[in-house]
Amino acid sequence: MTLPKMYRIRQKLDPPTVTDVAAAVRGEIAKLDLRGRLKPGGRVAVTGGSRGVANIATILRATCDSLKALGAKPFIVPAMGSHGGATVEGQVQVLSRYGVTPESMGVPIQASMETVEIGRMSWGLPVLMDRHAYEADHIVLVNRVKPHTNFRCHVESGLMKMLVIGLGKHQGALLAHRAAVDIGLDRMIPETGRYSLSRLSILFGLGAVENARHQTARVQAMLPEVLEETEARLLREAWHLLGRIPFDFLHLLIVDEIGKDVSGTGMDPNVIGRMYFFPNEEPKSPRYVRILARDLTPTTAGNAVGMGLADFGTRRLANKVNFHSTYTNSLTGLSPMRSKLPIIFETDREAIQGALKTVGLTEPPDAKVARIRNTLALEYLQASEALLPEIEGRPDLEVLDGPFEFQFSEAGDLVDRAPLPLGERSPGPPGD
Description:
The protein contains 14 helices and 15 strands. By secondary structure, it is α/β, with parallel strands linked by helices.
């Protein structure tokens, strides 16, 4: 099969960036004037999540240092629902992979899967809370604010969701997602979040917004009484900064890696245009006929949630899947379609050829094909010759080099002429 010729292109980005993240965090917390709210010598549970937040170790360390300077005794609790295989050891390991350890943070990590029921919603949901967080004098919510991969609302993936699902641990996350089948996440998250805010001693929230380069674009601290409205404002900013593939239609999208450190669903549905989440309708744009996922990120540690969003995968990917971790996460999130194995090919060559045989009457050399590292790293990408007319009409896109052909090893795997130009470096795992 003759494959399309490719070009390396760049999206011209000039996003806002926080240059000194630790200083920004300390400054934001100082603005809140917490001394009148903080119990002297109080124990404060600070949330540590699993979403691959940029600079998360720096953000958490600066938060804990600020609390200690106020005379508090902070500690970190894993707030990640069922992630890490829904085990204490697994959740501590998730934090460790992001550089969050007792030694690096200067505070203890208190991990448990035990919860306390703090009440019930009128429609029957028991509201569960991590026992260590519940028994603390105060709770501080720290998380990235971004568009969610399953639903649309004024608050989506952020502090309210961490309060409801992350701190609910495995059982709380499972019950919350089950309730969402009946009433929808767009109702369950804000209503349950308000209930928890009214019954817990939330000291403050700290939200981070990231740009299209997976860099910290803003951090903002907020008091609990304005948490919901402040998060909603940060979400609007996050939507504006969201990275996107610059083509609305492709015959084939090649994704070099998927993983939980990239998106909660391995690949961001807001980027690839596939939801696969009952009862949501599928997005009408963008439209990608076939998607190939080549590999898992090292940091995802075998959690392959999102592989079902792809049509095709490689043996390399399949051999790295930790099915226990993947299925625990998928069943908790009530999204089994997203964790089905795609059709597996032994090599990259076979996968690309197989995918292009299924795109209709378009001959492979004429197919519109793009290749990205992952759905976070979208500044540099590859595009096929058929996309040149679209690229040439876009002032925000530039061709860096090409044309060139796909290069394969004797074993049939790409010998990587990657989407990034030589000498450039894409964002690595958060915290590195």
